[in-house]
Every structure is written in structure tokens, then in C-alpha cells.
Amino acid sequence: MNINNSLSRRVGHISKCTQQHMDIALKPLELSSGSYPFILTLSDEEGINLEKLSRLIHVDKAMSTRTVQKLIKLDYIRKLPDSKDQRACKLYLTDKAKEAVPIIRKALNDWLEQITADIPNDKLEELYSTLDTILVRAEEK
């Protein structure tokens, strides 16, 4: 078995299935699998700029710009000038987004519970630990 192709294929497929699930679950909120990470990240760290948001989500700045503009139009994010740097803006959640955060987290948690339902906790902890190790190495690039 080629472990590299096998790991990449499995992780990629799980990611695609998760995207499909979240697209369906978040459709009533007019959100998608590509937009909810922006809301959750800002929920954890409001007032950051677009560059930092892009780094935290691991997407390029162009993708972040498009997604943030969409979320501004949908009244999920507001952009305010940075008082320390006139060229920069800080991003904040609107009340609408703050109300959506628990719904997003529940949809994600329900999905994760569904796909890990029959796996014992000790095996899940081992899996998460192994994936954390792989992720650290991947981010070292």
C-alpha cells in the first residue's frame, strides 16, 4: 500500500464529504463550506485584518477578499478602518453572524459525531494526535 497516496486520498475525500454536508446544513443561512471558516475564525479572534485571517484559514488573500466581500453583502461581517494604519481594515462579526455561530458549530459538531460515532474515544484521541503530528509537519513546509 502506498501510504502517501492513501492518506492524501482519504483526507481529501473526508474533506469533500464534510464540505458537501456543511453546504447543505448552512444553506438556510446563505453560507457555504467555503465561508463558515471565516465566521468561526473571527468569532475566536475579532478585529483582525484580512491578511491574518487568510493565514489562519490557510487560503490566499484573493480568496479571502472575495469571501469577505460576500459575507459583508450578506451582513455577516463588517469592515472598519484600523485606527493605527489608515490603509488597513479590521474585521468584525455582525449580530447576525454572532447568532449564526452556534448554528454553524452545531452543524459541524453533529457531522463529526455522525462520522466518528462508532469509534472508541481512545482511538479518536490517537487519531487526532497522529493527525496533529502530520499537520505540524505539513505546516513546516
From TrEMBL:
Pfam families: MarR (PF01047)
Domain of life: Bacteria
Keywords assigned by UniProt, alphabetized: DNA-binding, Transcription, Transcription regulation
The keyword Transcription is assigned to this record: yes
SUPFAM superfamilies (UniProt xref): Winged helix' DNA-binding domain
An annotated Gene Ontology molecular function: DNA-binding transcription factor activity
HTH marR-type domain residues: 4-136
Keyword Transcription assigned: yes
Protein name stated in the entry: DNA-binding transcriptional regulator, MarR family
Organism: Anaerocolumna jejuensis DSM 15929
